[in-house]
């Protein structure tokens, strides 16, 4: 790793979780009531353990969000509203990627293109700069990087190993070789090595196979990943190939990773379209793992797997069926801020 720089793992202590409140000017407009219930449940879960920082597009959105949260008896002492007019609410991908730098922090601000130009993203690409300008990161260094990269596309163990997918990075940078991308990611993110997965995808996924829908690190050299045991399902062959790739990975001292396969939810079909229901899209907070739940019998089985992978943490199920209508889930709408960052 680069001297004095370290990309912390998500399970390390945090100061807050950053989200953006959905409103009628976002893509949630057609099902706003349903998705608001998910956000209320998410903020309720976060504030049991730490602060929730909520971006709000204007004063009316803030007043409405505050009223909804107060009516749900949420601890408003742990809620902070941040004014910023955003295109949409996928803050995992438009939000800050934070490195520890000595006793302080470096906030990385990669270019956000809405997953290769699929949607409008001009305001979202200015999010990190706007938050920095408001002083929300304290005296952390702010580094703008003219390179398309989303937070959902990378996963770190906090000890110098990055996990990502070739499909996503190649789609964003088709002219770059794997060696070139490895060097760039390792340099900017202070990593010793980059592990690439060549397989794995979810139908209904806009992100070109973000790693946070497929495989995630857990403490103690472990990987939690989305499996598919239904041989009749269209995902089976690709997720089986991904599972084989993960099983072949080795830790820095040459050992296999401890593996925790997640169960497969039954297909969720909406207006003839299959939605991307992944249990790998969980969010880690202080003392707990917030898990996307889809109203499926596999929800409890997924919670049991996560309890094994994250011993000592409470597993909290958050209803996310409304979220996957827009092709993302719990981790996608949130970004953690390491302990000590912010004012």
UniProtKB/TrEMBL annotation:
<protein>
    <submittedName>
        <fullName>Agmatine deiminase</fullName>
        <ecNumber>3.5.3.12</ecNumber>
    </submittedName>
</protein>
<dbReference type="GO" id="GO:0004668">
    <property type="term" value="F:protein-arginine deiminase activity"/>
</dbReference>
<dbReference type="Pfam" id="PF04371">
    <property type="entry name" value="PAD_porph"/>
</dbReference>
<dbReference type="GO" id="GO:0009446">
    <property type="term" value="P:putrescine biosynthetic process"/>
</dbReference>
<keyword id="KW-0378">Hydrolase</keyword>
<dbReference type="InterPro" id="IPR007466">
    <property type="entry name" value="Peptidyl-Arg-deiminase_porph"/>
</dbReference>
<dbReference type="GO" id="GO:0047632">
    <property type="term" value="F:agmatine deiminase activity"/>
</dbReference>
